[in-house]
Amino acid sequence: MLWLLIPVMSGGQLLPPTGHVFNDQTVARVDILLHPDSLNALLQQGNWYSDHEYPADFVFTRGSRSDTTRNVGFRLRGNTSRSADKKSFRVSVNTFVSGRRYELIKDFNFNGNHNDPSMSRAKFFWDLCRLEGLAAPRANHVALYINGQYRGVYLNTEHINEDFTQLRFGSKSGNLYKCLYPASLTYISGNPNDYKLESQGRRVYELQTNTDTDDYSDLAHFIRVLHQTPAAQIYCALDTIFNVEDYLHTLAVDVSTGNWDGYYNKNNFYLYHNPATGKFEYIPYDTDNSFGIDWFGINWQTINAYNWKPSGDARPLYEKLMANTEARNIFSYYLKQVSEQLLANSWGAGIDSIKNRITPWALNDTYRTLDYGFSQNDFLQSFTTTSDDRHVKIGIKPFGINRANNTLAQLPVGLNIAPVISKLEVTNLVTGRQPLIKVRVEDETAVSIVMLTYTWQGNTQSLALFDDGAHQDDAAGDGIYANTLPVLQAGGWLGVRVSAVDGQSNTRYKPCAPALFQVFETGPLVLNEFLADNNNNIEDEAGVNSDWVELYNTTSEPYFLAGHYLTDNLSNPDKWAFPADTIAPGAHYLVWASNVAARGSRHAAFALSKSGEALGLFKKVGSDYVALDTLVFGAQLEDVSMGRQSDGHSQWVSFNTPTPNAANSVVSVVEVTENFPLQAYPNPFTDGRFVVYNPSEAAAYTLYNTNGQLLRQGVLPAVSTTEILEVKGNGLFVLLIHRATKVEVLKLLGTGN
What we know:
The protein is of the alpha+beta class. It contains 12 helices and 38 strands.
């Protein structure tokens, strides 16, 4: 039997909340303040295509709240828009202050969308992706002022970088490629360096991360598999190295919105090689040429969804998947789903809402009219009717309706496919715990049975997966199926395969061949606590507030550290070797993450990133490196550590009072009687309680971690008194208890629960 080796887990992306920065219920104001000479230099024609960043102050105002971040980097951005009268801009918060973020964001893209009279087409594309559960930038409209002068309505669009991949895919260490024209994914050769080809002074496949290594082997392998595999086998061949379902889903959004300036045009997409899954993820980018924007005389409302490529020009990824029956059927399923979304009343209402919100700002935007002479009427009609007689042929709303109806007419008659299985996730892959299997299953009819077949230590068994809200499967009826396996008492390899059957007895298996997941031996040595943003905590031997990592010996025997390694890159396990020290039974061991080896034998050859990364503890066995303990963490707060709830405990929490070289313990419980609303809003620029609750009134709550990921939501009932675990700053551990009944209402532990 063929088995697939999976690094640790295989899962789908997370959708972070809009938060303060990307909230689209109001138009925020953005002020950029810089020296007039710097502004003149930035706008000078000879400097349009320079990426030089000028120092500036960045002020973000929404309602009564106004935050100022000083000394940011400010420059032009984009391609053709750099020569436009309404230019696009980028703000980089960490250019001059390393590691800094505003609301967990380091780069802001303010896009002028000068060729779109509505200044909203890209926004509606991203909103549709979000409704469909796809990884795409968050976006909202802002009013941009530079040195007090109103520059117009801009689309504040989330930048695709390592922070983006950390939020969506839970990792940031993989290769992220920005793919621009002519990025067709056509095979060149077996030499990875040949994919570093250039066009217009930059690489076609431009590596954005790991640039020091500059290794294109993964991209070359992906394209080689795409090139060499016959269409009949391409779905299963790509399934091991590419998130096929999400690409087909994104392709359905491209087709349904007429977004031709992506892979259709060999342009504007990212590929991220996710180390957590071993698979590439496809991420769309720069989608303003959609919803009826046309420069070629093509009717994007009626174009054949199954011939979505220019005639005579190779698009191997699209062509081979459309020639594969299984992939084509999945694409058809998503086409139907997206088309029905575009025809829903809520979709049109959302367009009207955004239009009404930005109209006062748009009508005062004089820069909007400069490049194409768009009138006030062009803006107003762009949402509902024909915008003009040039490159904008139809309004956003009628385009969506017409495209959806035409697409539905193009679907195969009597479409009846097997359930679509995606986002397989296997967690708790350590001894002494119950592995959790979670997967998304979708079908145009009801799904009747979802089963897991797993192999452990030579025995193959079956386990039903449920979507009832009672098996760690999130909400009942949301299409997420899950269940837990028995406790695994030893390390080894767990074989996994999921099957799903619908009401018409159509069956699909995922993956194509069973996948192997490694079960790690935890301990006897574990990662116990770390501090990634040490400002006023303990100092190292040099009197420096270096970051630190604490280990804990869980056994009653001394533990010898020779042959063990610590790393912040799980694909590079031997990054730093421990000295030949011994940890006493039940004792702690502190390592300074200073990246300065000269300070002592316990100073690791790396520093921790306060914006989030990974930690790994490895032991060398023969020629292999065995993971004893690993952790992937998100953005951290100043002088707030993360550690196990108690020494060696399975749950990770935040400690406002770090405990280096000491036992981990929970802080005291205090009463809260203030009449505050419940709030759970991570703001790295403020301090105070993370959650407060007026116990005399019922309150809805929504909790996010400091990555901005939605953790839990619901309603807390009114009670006579409430105890709340105090959180200073934006901690991640929250405990609300009814004193009268001693019933736990809400328990949030660490970043993943």
